[in-house]
């Protein structure tokens, strides 16, 4: 288990071998030391069903031949996670730019791989600039950790990201530790409802009640809601009835290896949007 100080930052001992230099950069990122393995990305669309547009693509890590994520993540260690997190952002942006992605780009990140938010964001900003990808089209999504200190640290990172102009999203909201407490102190731009809340929602009064309540809270707080893991047309129309128009899941598209989706090629359900 990672040691943390009371601020939720990694304990100094954890990065003593690569503490901040006088120039303020963490040499773990600045040294240009190679990661030692390669990876690529698949992109899954998040659709806006009311506009019949693609709202964003979530970048999902894959092997260079499209191998599943675990084959890559198995190579991430305590030693290289800082470099890996940085490399992920750069690669996700570079590949999206190469694909001429016109939608937003949502990047998963690891809050515990951030040393200092304002320093660790530099290579991301450089990649966005170098590849001409507007930062206001980049979403950073992550799951909330299990401890109070995790939420505090995540809030700090997200505040800095919002200040710079990125969009922020809490992933898997409603599962595990991602909950209402965080929203009380910090409002991300977006929450992504966990797929266990979405599964068969058309047949579950309790899921409908929970999602309706969450949507009400989010409307009041100015937070957009994405439903993840939408697989059936009935789930889709139940979610529309609950006022959700941002949807992600196999009903629309699986993640596509090194490719973007086109809105006019997606299987839009026949029902008219609400
Ligand atoms: Ca995610």
Strand content: 15-25%
Query: How many discrete structural domains?
Result: 1
Helix content: 25-40%
Strand order of the largest sheet: 1-2-3-4-5-6-7-8
What compounds sit in this structure? Answer: calcium ion
What would the average pLDDT be, to the nearest integer? 86
Taking pLDDT < 50 over at least 5 consecutive residues as the criterion, the unreliable ranges are 1-23
How many β-strand runs?
Answer: 9
Rounded to the nearest angstrom, the distance between the terminal CA atoms is: 47 Å
The secondary-structure element order is HEEHHEHHEHEHEHHEHEE
CATH topology: TIM Barrel
Quick one: overall form?
Answer: globular
Radius of gyration: 19 Å
- The DSSP helix count reads 10
- State the CATH architecture: Alpha-Beta Barrel
Description:
- By secondary structure, the protein is an alpha/beta fold.
- The protein has one domain (about 30-260): EAL domain (TIM Barrel), CATH 3.20.20.
- Helix content is about 35%, strand content about 20%.
- It has helices at about 25-30, 70-75, 80-100, 115-120, 120-130, 150-165, 180-185, 195-200, 205-220, 235-240; strands at about 40-50, 55-60, 105-110, 140, 165-175, 190-195, 225, 245-250, 255.
- An eight-stranded mixed barrel has the order 1-2-3-4-5-6-7-8.
- The termini are far apart.
- About 40% of the residues are buried.
- The model is unreliable at about 1-25 (pLDDT under 50).
- Calcium ion (CA) binds next to loops.
């Amino acid at each position: 288990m990672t040691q943390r100080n009371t601020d939720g930052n990694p304990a100094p001992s954890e990065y003593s071998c690569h503490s901040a230099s006088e120039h303020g950069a963490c040499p773990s990122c600045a040294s240009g030391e190679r990661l030692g393995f390669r990876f690529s990305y698949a992109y899954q669309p998040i659709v806006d069903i009311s506009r019949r547009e693609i709202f964003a693509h979530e970048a999902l890590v894959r092997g260079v031949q499209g191998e599943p994520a675990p084959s890559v993540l198995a190579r991430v260690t305590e030693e290289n996670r800082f470099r890996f997190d940085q490399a992920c952002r750069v690669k996700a942006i570079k590949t999206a730019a190469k694909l001429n992605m016109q939608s937003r780009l949502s990047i998963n990140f690891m809050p515990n791989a951030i040393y200092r938010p304002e320093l660790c964001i530099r290579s991301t900003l450089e990649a966005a600039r170098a590849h001409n990808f507007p930062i206001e089209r980049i979403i950073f999504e992550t799951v909330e950790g299990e401890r109070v200190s995790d939420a505090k640290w995540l809030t700090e990172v997200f505040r800095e990201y919002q200040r710079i102009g990125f969009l922020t999203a809490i992933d898997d909201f409603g599962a595990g530790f991602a909950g209402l407490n965080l929203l009380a102190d910090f409002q991300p731009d977006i929450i992504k409802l966990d797929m266990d809340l979405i599964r068969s929602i058309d047949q579950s009064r309790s899921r409908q009640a929970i999602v309706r309540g969450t949507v009400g809270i989010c409307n009041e707080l100015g937070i957009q809601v994405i439903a993840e893991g939408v697989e059936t047309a009935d789930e889709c129309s139940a979610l529309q009835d609950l006022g959700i128009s941002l949807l992600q899941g196999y009903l629309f598209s699986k993640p596509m290896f090194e490719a973007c989706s086109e809105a006019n090629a997606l299987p839009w359900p026949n029902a008219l949007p609400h």
